[in-house]
């Protein structure tokens, strides 16, 4: 588990059941080295509640 920020373009919103390509910034943790790669799927949680799912399309920068 790590901390991250999802950037939804200004003026747009995302509702349950919708999909959108967004930029996700994750806090860099040594334990995540090699774990974040295209095709990796994960749950997006807010507290203990799962509020979405995501799939890595591209890794930019390290």
Order of helices and strands: EEEE
Which shape, going by the Cα principal axes? globular
Strand content: 25-35%
Continuous helix count = 0
The count of DSSP E runs of length 2 or more, i.e. the number of strands, is 4
Summed up:
By secondary structure, the protein is mainly β. Helix content is 0%, strand content 34%.
Labels describing this entry:
two-stranded antiparallel ribbon, 62 residues, mainly beta
What does this structure look like?
With 62 residues, the protein is mostly beta strands. It is 0% helix and 34% strand. The protein has strands at residues 4-7, 23-26, 41-46, 49-55. The chain has a two-stranded antiparallel sheet. A hairpin with a 2-residue loop joins β3 (41-46) and β4. The model has no long low-confidence stretch (mean pLDDT 85).
Task: Please give the structural blueprint.
Layout: E1 4-7, E2 23-26, E3 41-46, E4 49-55
Antiparallel strand pairs: 1-2, 3-4
